[in-house]
Amino acid sequence: MPKRKGRPVVHAVTVLALLAGSAYFTYELRKDEQAKLPAAQTITENLHSSGGATGKQTWERLNNPARSVLRDGKGAVIATFTDGARTATLKGPTRTFSEPSNTSTKLVTDDWVRLMPEPWTKGAEKQQWFKDWFKQYYGSEEDDIFAFAFQYIVGAPVKKDDQGIQYAGHAYYGPLKTDGVDRYEQTDFYDYLGIPYTFRDGVTKYPQQDRLRSVDCSGYLRLVYGYRARYPLMSDNDHGDGLPRTADGMARGKEGVDIIKLQGPSPWYTRPQNIDVLQPGDLLFFKMDHRTGNHMDHSAIYLGPDTEGHKIFISSRKEQNGPTIGDQGGVSRLDGNGFYAKLFRSAKRL
Question: Which pTM was predicted?
Answer without folding.
Answer: 0.87
